[in-house]
Amino acid sequence: MPVITTKDGVAIFFKDWGPKDAQPIMFHHGWPLSSDDWDAQMLFFLSKGYRVIAHDRRGHGRSAQASGGHDMDHYAADAAAVVEHLDLRNAVHIGHSTGGGEVARYVARHGEPQGRVAKAVLVSAVPPLMVKAPSNPGGLPLEVFDGLRQALADNRAQFFLDLPAGPFYGFNRPDAKVSQGVVQNWWRQGMAGSAEAHYEGIKAFSETDQSDDLKAITVPTLVLHGEDDQIVPIDASARLSVKLLKNGTLKTYPGYPHGMLTTHADVINPDLLAFIKG
């Protein structure tokens, strides 16, 4: 099983498919999932001749269930460790949800300073800041995230069924076509990870102000977001992020949910390809 070990001794699992001399695309998954959440994108870009890489965040999927380090700084440093191990250059980094925050911090603090990044994509991503604060009056109240923590602590297995069966994929909307396979795959990925990592990760994705990360990024950056995202509301995330990016482009999708990379891969994948090739 391909793993690297970080400086603080955490084993990080990764996938690396495709020609080693092709342009690399690295995918950063959302909470509380794993690199498996990128199956539709990795197979698509593999078929287009790209080298595709994805890792399981510490405490998630097949990576070590480390105690501690469940914050954006460590997430970004772990991603950097994978990049440096594989010596990826001219790479495109694509992040979903919490993975979008990981991409923003990685590109700002590691990737651009090292000259390794060509472009970035933030999909349904958490930056600049999710929680409501004096500097972020449009954010969600802290009580929302306290509720997530309580639900996870009380019955993680049930919580990890209810979330994908409801708002994550928009399956709670009238006339939604519910896929039990998608719900069960979300549950499978989530339950493979560490309850501690998932619990502490809620603070990481909700309370990390990434305004400075966004301001520091200069490579072309595409911001994609569903207008019916019930998990990361678009007005408090994507619409603010694109204003902070020096070279950002916003594309929104009416009616699309948070998990649109899965439910609408047939639309999102070609849009990603057009940006990468453009």
TrEMBL record:
Keywords (A to Z) from UniProt: Oxidoreductase, Peroxidase
GO function terms (MF aspect): peroxidase activity
InterPro entries xrefs: AB_hydrolase (IPR050471), AB_hydrolase_1 (IPR000073), AB_hydrolase_fold (IPR029058), Epox_hydrolase-like (IPR000639)
Oxidoreductase found in the keyword field: yes
Residue ranges annotated for the AB hydrolase-1 domain, each copy included: 24-261
Keyword Oxidoreductase: yes
Family: Belongs to the AB hydrolase superfamily. Bacterial non-heme haloperoxidase / perhydrolase family.
Protein name: Non-heme chloroperoxidase
Organism name: Bosea psychrotolerans
